[in-house]
Amino acid sequence: MYWKFLCVDCDRNWILNRLCSPSKPCEARAIACGQWIDMVTTRIGGYSLQNRLLVAVSVLLTVFLGLTGVVLDRAFRNSLETGVAEQLQVQIYVLLAAVDETDGNFYFSENLREPRFSQLNSNLYGFISSASEGELLRTSSALDIDYETLSLDYDLGIGNTSFGRLQTTSGSEFFVSSYAVTWENRRSPILFSVLESTDTFKAEAAGFRNSLWSWLGGLAVLLLVLQVLLLRWGLAPLRRLATDLQQIEAGQSEALDTSYPRELSAVTRNLNLLIQSERKQQSRYRTTLADLAHSLKTPLAVIQGELGRDAAGNSQESLVQEQLDRMNQIVTYQLQRAVSAGNASTLARQVNVADVVARVSRTLQKVYADKAVNIELNIDPALNFLGDERDLMEMLGNLLDNACKYGRGKVAVSAVLLSDAPPSMRLQIEDNGPGISADDRDRVLQRGVRLDTLAQGQGIGLAVVADIATGYGASVSVADSRLGGAAIVIVFDNIRVAD
Questions:
Q1: pLDDT-based confidence at 454, cuts 50/70/90?
Q2: In this structure, is residue 374 part of a structural domain?
Q3: Cα dihedral angle (124, 130, 133, 134), rounded to 10 degrees?
Q4: Are residues 110 and 224 in the same domain?
Q5: Residue range 312-325, pLDDT digits in tens
Q6: Does pTM surpass 0.85?
Q7: I need a labelling partner for 284 at 20 to 30 A (CA). Which of 74, 135, 374, 398 fits?
Q8: DSSP H or E segment with residue 426
Q9: How many CA atoms lie within 13 A of 159 on its CB side?
Q10: Could you tell me the CATH number of the domain that includes residue 396?
C-alpha cells in the first residue's frame, strides 16, 4: 500500500511506501508524518474524536514505552557486563597474589581466596600462560577445559588489561579478562587470564528483560485506562452538547444550557442565537401569512355575502360565486403550501399522533353526524410526530374529511411503527367509498398540478397533504383499501417512540 504526501518544501507530491523510510529530506517533513498519523487514526478509529485520540495516544505510548524498554535493557546489559569485567579484574589480582615459581614451575603458594577456582563446573576458570611456552598453570576448576580451544590475546602489551567474549570451538561462550606482566627470568610476558561462562549473565539479563517488559506492559495498560478515563472526562462537555442538541431536535428543550467550559461557550452561545433567530423567523412568517390570509379572505367574504343577497338562479351570479369559491380554495391552498414549506425544522416539537387523530376524528364525527360515520382507530400510543401540530392536524383533517365525505359511512385510521433504526411510521386512512382510479392516483398527488385538473370530488385536500408531507421528507401514496375504497398511505421518518 502506498500513501501520497504533499511536501511543504518543494511543493511536490511524493509516493511513499508505508513500510519504507523516506529517501529524500523533504519527504520526512513533519507535514508528511502528521498526514500519515491522521490517516491511520481515521482508518482505525473512524470519525470518533475519542477513538482517534485513543489510537494516537496508544501509538505514541507504544513507541515511547518500546524505546524506553530497549534503552533500559541495553543499559542494564552494559552495566552487568561492566560489573563482570570489574569482577574478573579482581580475580586476576587474586591469581597474582597466590602464584609463585620454583625452578621454572608455577604453582599456587596458598589457597585461592575465591572458592570457585577450586570447584569443578563453577563457571570461573583461571589460566597462566605465555606465548612461547603455552599453558603454565590452571586452577582446579579448569581441569575439564581444553586449553587448545581457547584463543587468548598474547599480543597484549605489558601492564595492559583486555576484556571481551571468547567463543570456543566447542560452542561454549565465556567472558575473558587478561592481564600481561613480566616475570623475572622469563623472556615472554606472562598472561594471567580469568574466564567466566556467560550463562549466568544471560540468565540475569533475560530475567531483567522479562520483568522489565512485564512492568512496562502493566504500565501501558494502566496508562491506557487512565487515558480512557481522562478522555471521557475531558470530552464529557461535547457529549453533553450533543445530548442537548438531540433534546432540542426532539422538542424536549428550548435552548442549550449555558454551563459549558470556556472553550465551548462561544459555540453554544452562537447556536442559541441561531436557534432563537430561526424561531423568530418562523414566527414572523406565520404572522405575515396570517395577515395575508385575513386581508384576502375578508374581501372575498364580503363579495360572497353581497352575491348571496341577490336572487338565486342567475347563471352569471352563479358563475361568479363558483369562481369566488375557487379563489378562496386557491388562497387556502397556497397559504398552506407556504406555511408547510418551512415546518420540517430540526427544532420541532414532539406531537402525540394518537391524541391528534382522536381530536380530529371526534370533530368530523360531529360534522358528519347525519351520515353516522364510524371511524375505527388503530394508533400506537407511543408514536410521536416531530413537527408542527397544526401540520399534522391539517393533513389528518383533509384526509379524514375526504374519507368521511366520499365514503359510505366507514373509515379506518392506523399508525404503526415500521422500523426502530431509524424510527419510521406508516399512517394510513381508509374508506369504503368509490376510491380513486389507478390512472388518477399519481396525478392527484403530483406537485404543481393545476387545481382545475384535479379529480372531481377530491378538492385540494390531497395536494395540500402531499405538499405538507413532502416538506417533512415523507412519502404519500394511494392504494386500494381493505374496506373497498381508497387508502392514503403516508410514511414518516421524523418520529420518536416514547419510552
A1: very low
A2: yes
A3: 30
A4: yes
A5: 555 566 666 666 66
A6: no
A7: 398
A8: strand 423-431
A9: 0
A10: 3.30.565.10
